[in-house]
Design brief:
Elements lengths: L12 H10 L24 E2 L8 H8 L2 E7 L2 E4 L10 E7 L2 E6 L4 E7 L5 E7 L2 H7 L3 H22 L2 E7 L2 H8 L3 E2 L2 E2 L8 E10 L5 H5 L3 H4 L22 H4 L1 H15 L7 E3 L8 H6 L5 H5 L29
Antiparallel strand pairs: 1-6, 2-3, 4-5, 4-7, 5-6, 7-11, 8-11, 8-12, 9-10
Helix pairs in contact: 1-9, 2-4
């Protein structure tokens, strides 16, 4: 007797998105009129943060995630942390002692405090893939995950420079959304009028000297005493579009990447987080402030470059002369 046929298995959204990325599918046209913003715009007032060097969350975030006040290209403020195409899909939510703030890397400020059940100090990192899908289409899943890894490593390096210990967990989206007071619905964070957001990791911060966490992380009363929103409600960001959502949010590539990230954020069945080892060497704050993305010409010109080094593998990374037409960003 022939064995009974196996029931059909549901497609794996992560595998589908990775296959689409590695096939090198055409990302499609890049329409400047559809370009999503590179950051959320949160309601005020702003709690402006000090820059590095110094103690507290301001210097930590300045070293890790902030936009560099002096660097701009094609209308994009470049940040300390690298990002493919300057799209910056990573959002950061700062938690401390029962309050969560939204971090704006361009303003280097905290916004929209809300009550949180989390009593420690941590940074919840989430992805807004539509920013990257706008440029890279179905190739976007490994790109946004790499950007998330850059942000995690940047926070670990900044923590060491600030005398802190950092520990990262990949945790279920529902748990991270609850701690960061994010509106979780149907496998993602969904603010009205804003693209879906996927919380995936949390970086816990501790003082190197046990028992001195508050002194090391929050020495300034003006930084540590922002009042949560009235009634403990979580204020949402400004709407990102008017009318129907653009294709970067509602198109096939966006759905493909969103489904994969929703699968990632489901986490283990028991709801626990997975520790993520981040072996980051120690760097002084001055080195973190001075870092920047190297142009391909500088990579070729480095002393260790071998003679006859082939050109970069992707056309988008080839150096262009002054007469080359600008590429839309």
């Amino acid at each position: 007797m022939d064995p009974a046929p196996l029931p059909p298995t549901a497609p794996d959204p992560v595998a589908e998105a990775l296959h689409a990325a590695w096939r090198g599918e055409d990302p499609g046209p890049t329409r400047l009129s559809h370009r999503p913003p590179e950051h959320r715009r949160w309601p005020g007032p702003a709690l402006e943060l000090p820059r590095a060097p110094g103690p507290g969350p301001g210097p930590l975030l300045d070293l890790a995630l902030a936009a560099d006040p002096r660097r701009r290209t094609r209308g994009v403020r470049l940040r300390r942390v690298p990002s493919a195409g300057g799209r910056y899909p990573v959002e950061a939510h700062l938690l401390h002692a029962g309050t969560v703030w939204r971090y704006d890397a361009l303003d280097h400020a905290l916004y929209a405090p809300a009550a949180s059940p989390h009593q420690g100090t941590a940074v919840v990192l989430s992805l807004v893939p539509s920013r990257t899908v706008w440029r890279y289409g179905p190739r976007s899943l490994p790109i946004v995950l790499l950007d998330l890894g850059h942000a995690v490593a940047a926070l670990h390096a900044a923590a060491r420079a600030c005398g802190l210990r950092a520990r990262t967990l990949l945790a279920p989206g529902t748990s991270l959304a609850r701690s960061a007071r994010l509106p979780w619905h149907e496998g993602a964070v969904r603010w009205p009028g804003a693209a879906p957001e996927h919380p995936l990791a949390v970086v816990h911060l501790h003082a190197r000297a046990p028992g001195r966490e508050r002194e090391a992380v929050w020495p300034s009363p003006t930084t540590g005493r922002a009042a949560p929103a009235p009634g403990g409600s979580a204020a949402g960001p400004a709407a990102e579009w008017e009318g129907p959502p653009p294709p970067e949010v509602s198109g096939a590539a966006a759905h493909l990447v969103d489904a994969a990230l929703s699968s990632f954020s489901a986490g283990p069945a028991d709801g626990s987080g997975r520790p993520l080892p981040v072996p980051v060497p120690g760097f002084p704050a001055s080195a973190l402030l001075a870092r920047h993305t190297a142009a391909w010409e500088r990579v070729l010109g480095r002393p260790s470059a071998r003679p006859g080094l082939p050109p970069p593998p992707y056309p988008g990374t080839r150096p262009r002369g002054r007469s080359a037409p600008p590429r839309p960003d």
